[in-house]
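Write out a sequence, fold above all:
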Amino acid sequence: MNIKRVMIVGTMVVIMSFGSTALSASITSASPAAKWAATGVKDKDELLEALHQDSDEELYEALYEGKSLHDIAADRGADIQRVIDLQVSQLTRQLDERLRKGSISADQYSAHKAELREIVERSVHTSFG
């Protein structure tokens, strides 16, 4: 199981819980960020790097134990703002792609984007364990 996908989907659950009804109708799945497929360079997971975690399993275990991303970052001396910025960036790219493909309207895009940072900031304090 890809921990980045777990985290993004977990964030999406929070977004659907706290967001507007329009938001829950238009954002239902997440895809992981692009990797260095063409270059052959192994890309360390951005989320793991931001949280100072060594592996997906280590992060998964901390989440399974009931820790929030904020707790995990604090335990490792990581910058929680970097984690928030990373998630906002990834979710913004997904919104951009959905707008480009026409799966959401410009009004929905604007509404979702306006709420995104606040929702992600709340989600980092939420335990999914």
User: Anything to note?
Assistant: Residues 16-42 have pLDDT under 50 and may be disordered. The two ends are 16 Å apart (CA to CA). The chain has one domain: 3-20+44-123.
